[in-house]
Amino acid sequence: MSGQKKFYVTTPIYYPSSDLHIGHTYTTVAADTMNRFKKLQGYDSYFITGTDEHGQKIEKIALEHNMSPQEYVDGVVSGVKKLWDTMNVQYNQFIRTTDVDHIETIQAIFRKLYEQGDIYKGKYEGLYCTPCESFWTESQAPDGICPDCKRKLEQASEEAYFFRMSKYADRLLAYMEEHPDFIQPEARKNEMINNFIKPGLQDLCVSRTSFQWGVPVDFDPGHVVYVWIDALPNYLSALGYCNEKEDKMASYWPPDLQLVGKDIIRFHTIYWPIILMALDLPLPEKIYGHGWILLKEGKMSKSLGNVVDPVELVKKYGTDALRYYILREMNFGGDSAYSEDLLISRINSDLANDLGNLLNRTTAMTVKYFDGQIPPVREERPEDEELKEQMISLPGKVSKLMDQPDFAKALETIWKAVSATNKYIDENKPWALGKNPEEKDRLAQVMYQLSESLRFLGILIGPFMPETGKKILDYLNVEEEYRSWNSLHAFGLCPFEKRYDRCEPLFPRIERKKEKE
Ligand code: MSP
Asked: Is 239 helix (H, G, I), strand (E, B) or coil?
């Protein structure tokens, strides 16, 4: 659509594995929320995710399963997609690095970089971490232990192609300094500059010969492209860069927001921008490195048997409750501790009590006093202003927080408005007004204020909890034209002309005792 602003948001592409846990859902739910929020605001927003299927690690796992790597990845990818369906994640495109189009892009990029002299052939002697698919020098890992995952490194010695990273170091540093928003949060940027760029970038080994499961270097059989050089440009291949797909580069490039976990920020803020500089492409607007969801005892891992399965949690509590918990409870920039107890508390207090009761009281009283239809003749009073103003200022406040992005604060701000609406009920006491026939017009206004506030809340909650947002608007019979971002510019627009019924509870309270049983 002409004149429509675009937004391009990405998540990392996941290593296909059958044990994707609640930590993995974190980025994807956040990116989905952002995509939905931008769409609500009228952007032409595009959101991609996918799977990172090549590399030594996958080849090894497939072998352990007595399968070919292709059979293995084909078997697990459907599980990854299912998880995103379960979490109600709506991506525009799911990229697999084994897709023919993606392979075409990688081969074209590799060839171009080689032909223009950024990639040269040499010999790799050094350390390699297979679980992280990451090269390390003796000086970076003097004890032979991976600085990221703390596992033992392997000695690697093979003929390989190298990328002249050092050539771009000064340009990258200057770019980071001129674009303070490029890497967020700030602390992660400083870490990259001080620990990696300033000590001097080493040339990066970008091909392997000791295994086969990767994109072949088409002009030098026997070499496969290093998995990170294969994975990072998925953000380009998705848009048809150097492949046969529809060319969406002009519409969406560069990405507005790339969400990644803190463990892979180095790849995304050093290798990735350098690849783009070498390809002469604009850099992403913002790369946000979020913290991890941890357990009290530390990391989640299959070997420790402490993996928290999001599918089980959704079965128990529902998709929206889990989405709310992840986005609200987790401090997006830093690490956060997961606890099911806290999840239950959030459901009971914020969802069942604050939001659920608000909708319940509003619909129940509208049914009781007005047979489900608010009369058009109403009596406004000065005490209505405060709630009105709070609602009118809410979209702007939430929008600012989403631009940071700070999902938890955005939800906290919406919930302050939920509390203010509950307080409005307590102060205006519709049950007392209902006893006095002379206060009928005033009662109508109170019920209108509540419904209109719930319309604002339902619209703004939608990107975070899509089913819940829709349910609220459906219960209030809000017409399509009053569900848009533009319809939030004024309070009092929605006529609520259709009768509504008393709602079912939005979120049933969770009895802790039952839960423990
Ligand atoms: N394949 C690479 C990404 C390539 S992107 C070009 C990869 N995959 S991964 O499956 O290991 O991780 C995917 C994402 O999940 C990463 O951003 C990682 O930080 C995130 N998380 C893994 N465990 C996590 C938590 N416990 N908490 C939050 N995020 C976590 O890395």
From this structure: coil
pLDDT in tens, 83-115: 999 999 999 999 999 999 999 999 999 999 999
Q: Tell me the two tokens of residue 34.
A: 């952002």
| pLDDT tens track for 156-166 | 888 999 999 99
Residue 295 phi, psi dihedral angles, 5° rounding:
-100, 170
Which residues are CB-neighbours of 382 under 8 A, at least 6 positions away? none
Q: Is the CB of 44 under 6 A from ligand 1?
A: no
Please name the residues in contact with 169: beta carbons below 8 A apart, sequence gap of 6 or more: 197, 200, 201
Q: Kindly state the percentage of the chain with pLDDT values over 90.
A: 85
How far apart are alpha carbons 30 and 262 in whole angstroms?
15
Ligand 1 pocket test target in 15, 24, 226, 331 with most atoms within 8 Å of CB:
24
pTM over 0.90: yes
Number of other residues whose CB lies within 10 A of the CB of residue 123: 10
Which residues, at least 6 apart from 46, have a Cβ–Cβ distance to it below 8 Å? 6, 7, 8, 9, 35, 92, 93, 248, 251, 252
Query: How far is the centre of ligand 1, averaged over its atoms, from the C-alpha of 188 (Å)?
Result: 16
- pLDDT at residue 75 tops 50: yes
